[in-house]
């Protein structure tokens, strides 16, 4: 099962919930949260780039006692810059101009486009053992991530709870009362884009409705600013996830679009 984040602050948990969280601090993305022994953790530092679009500045991966620090250009293992492909202690790191990939023998695959989009695939042996922005991986996609005892809370509260507290970090938590209103416009356009013939091989592999909802949120948030980040990031994510699920998306980008 795959957890991912992309584009306009979208997150999809291992269990399939999609939510938006605009925080720009360092967060627990997905970790083994058993008390006795934690096999891995993935932390991400989020920020806004010069165009005010959210990106991931760096990723910190711990596998058992082994630490990998990734930036778009560098891989640092236990404090030493390494050349890729790099293999040690059951962890393989590869990168090219477009993606950085990490494979860990314990059952984790991480793929980052060195900008906004990150996906983590996790072996089902970690069912019910994870915590972080990716949720608890218990197979139930009904927002049980956002329920604590009897109280339920919104995605911003939930995201803020995943912050890694660092003594000298100066980052503001997003305001929990500003949860994004859901958007009901642009459905036709988003459905048309995501069910086009280029994605014929994807419909049986993914739940397209989730991406339609995310696309609608993007279109509303863009407020008519038709930049490619606003329009294309969810469609790129759908295409990536389709490929990852074994599908073969066709060529959907055109000179006029994305």
From TrEMBL:
Q: Tell whether Transmembrane is among the UniProt keywords.
A: no
Q: Which UniProt keywords apply?
A: Disulfide bond, Glycoprotein
Q: Which InterPro entries match?
A: Mucin_vWF_Thrombospondin_sf, VWF/SSPO/ZAN-like_Cys-rich_dom, VWF_type-D
Q: Name one GO cellular component term.
A: extracellular space
User: From what superkingdom does this record's organism come?
Assistant: Eukaryota
UniProt key word Glycoprotein: yes
Q: Which residues form the VWFD domain?
A: 1-172
Q: Which PANTHER family match?
A: EXTRACELLULAR MATRIX GLYCOPROTEIN RELATED, MUCIN-2
Q: What is this protein called?
A: VWFD domain-containing protein
Source organism: Struthio camelus australis
State the taxonomy lineage: Eukaryota, Metazoa, Chordata, Craniata, Vertebrata
